Amino acid sequence: MARKFLIGCVLVLALAMATIVPSLGQSTTKQLSTNFTVINLGEGPAEGIVQYFKTDGTQWGSGSETFTISTFGGQAIFRQYNPVGQPGNPNLTDGAGSVVISANQPLGAVVQILARNQDPTTSGAYSGFAKGDTSYYVPLVARNLQTASGLANSQIVVQNVSSKVIDVEINLINPDGTTKYTKSGITIQPSASYYYDLALESSTNVPDNWYGSAVVRTTTSDGAIAVVSNFFTGDAMQTFNAFPSTSPTTKWFIPLFTSRLANSLSTPVAVQNLSGSTIPANGVKLICQPDPALSGYTPFTKTNTVEIKNTAAYYFNPVVDTSIPEGFYGSCVVEASANVVVFVQMRFIATGEAAAHEAFPVSSTDTKVFIPLVAQRLANGFATAVTIQNLSGEQATFKLTYRRSPDCTVGPVTYSPPDQTVGPYASLIQNHRTGVSGLVDGWFGTLSVESNKPVAAFVQLTFLRSINPNLPRGDLYMAHNAFTQP
Q1: What's the rounded Cα separation, in Å, for the pair 232 and 379?
Q2: Are 251 and 332 contacting, i.e. CB atoms less than 8 angstroms apart?
Q3: Would you place residue 14 in the very low, low, confident or very high pLDDT band (cuts 50, 70, 90)?
């Protein structure tokens, strides 16, 4: 049986999915292009097809290309900026669109969105979708919002993942829970994506300096969508997956929380109420523990100071909240009196770089993690860091396996370091930016983790000037969540 995987934002740059998108609307002036990396999560060889669609649902370029990933944990990379005929560019024209990947094995995929060869640059990353839902939630959206990192605007990308034409509406929610504006009249062809750029919305509908949350839903019976959000601030782009209707729960884990570090990194946390009723003041707790390596800091708890109406969001922001200790880093748990969703921004205020990822639901019972792309100190400066989180209150054992990409020619084909023991609610960081023993500089491929306790992970992707001093200014920082299985 064919398994489908969904990538709603593709750009061809000469590619979010895109080749070259001249400015991806008006939220950024950059020319953006994409690449995506696919990992085989099945027991046997994955044979599949990648189908490309324009925003009107018609065939994009030659329309498709086939692939084979021969082994479990194996990888294939599709670059929309490749020359015509190479993987990722089946004669694509410049513009934006979407992708549907079908295969005979389960897959995972991560998408990178890049302003290639531009100074200053922009970058973002997100995980593809294995299925859609009737509604999605976005905890933070903005229009022409003044921030410490520059003017903020949101772009919401909605892909139709059903087999028929559907209608969609996007409700923009004020912080007090009232509806600011409903974007209706959106019709999307099967497999196509709709790009809603708030910078292009009339100020009559959504005023300048507005921020809030969003609810995206299909109004068509039996319709299904997938949603990605691009949050632009100056040269930076934070790309993250919206939350499907099955996501809300009362407890979320944040593996890395920082407050005004010396390198200017802070991690604001957005909490969207999706309980169907109002959460009272003090109904949401951000409970933080300092990292064991950090001395002089004690645990602290922050709570919401005002009530949170249904679908509205509340923000814990260490950039401006000076009651959160400066220099703190560690992990946090969000505990709520009713169902919420949570996502984390990662902002380097001094450099304007930023990334984002979704928090981990503590209720998850999955014990396997898959990362489609890890890289150790590539010559172009690219490297990754993977934070693997024990979600249980008991000690866990992690078994890690690295598998080299077929596009890589250096280092081990496979590598399994000794099993790692990780304490309750603790994490293991594989920092390929400084180097992981057993791998070599220039190595890239996939990473899988097997645990005897529930586990999750997120990935930071960075281009490092310490490796490549010729890198442009701007945003060289990305993040995304890993894939999990039972």
Answers
A1: 28
A2: no
A3: very low
Q: Which residues on neighbouring strands pair with residue 376, listed in sequence order?
A: 443
SS3 200: helix
Report which secondary-structure segment, H or E, holds 264.
none
Q: Are 482 and 457 in contact (CB under 8 A)?
A: yes
* Backbone φ and ψ of 105, nearest 5°: -135, 155
Inter-residue contact 14 to 33 (CB < 8 Å) = yes
Tokens of 64: 């498709």
Given a contact cutoff of 8 angstroms between Cβ atoms, the answer to whether 99 and 17 are in contact is yes
| Residue 322: partners with Cβ closer than 8 Å, 6 or more residues away | none
Run of H or E including 263:
none
Three-state SS for 373? strand
DSSP class of residue 305 equals S
Contact 454, 391 (CB under 8 A): yes
If you count them, how many residues does the chain have? Answer: 486
The sign of the CA dihedral 464, 382, 34, 108 is: negative
In whole angstroms, what is the distance from residue 320 CA to residue 298 CA? 20
pTM: predicted TM-score of the whole model, two decimal places: 0.94
Are the C-beta atoms of residues 451 and 368 closer than 8 Å to each other?
yes
Do you find a cis peptide bond into 248, omega within 30 degrees of 0? no
Domains of the chain, first to last: 3-127 (2.60.290.11), 135-244 (2.60.290.11), 249-361 (2.60.290.11), 368-485 (2.60.290.11)
Are β-strands 477-481 and 360-361 bridged in parallel, bridged antiparallel, or unpaired? Answer: unpaired
Angstrom distance (rounded) from CA 294 to CA 345: 22
Report the distance separating Cα 322 and Cα 259, nearest Å.
9
75: its two tokens: 């990888």
State how far the Cα of 191 lies from the Cα of 218, in Å rounded to an integer: 14
Task: Measure the CA–CA gap between 62 and 52, rounded to whole angstroms.
Answer: 8
248 Cβ partners below 8 Å, 6+ apart? 137, 274, 275, 339, 340, 341
Q: How far is CA 453 from CA 249, 366, 416, 428, 456, in A?
A: 20, 8, 19, 14, 10
DSSP string of 90-107?
Answer: SSPPSSBEEEEEEESS-E
Q: Single out the residue of 466, 444, 354 nearest to residue 124, CA to CA.
A: 354
Express each pLDDT in 358-392 by its tens digit.
Answer: 999 999 999 999 999 999 999 999 999 999 999 99
Confidence of residue 234 (pLDDT cuts 50, 70, 90): confident
Q: What DSSP letter does each residue of 35-88 carry, written as one string?
A: EEEEEE-SSS-EEEEEEEEETTSSEEEEEEEEEEE-STT-EEEEETTSPTTSTT
Structure tokens at 65: 């290309």
- Do strands 166-173 and 210-218 pair parallel, antiparallel, or not at all (unpaired)? antiparallel
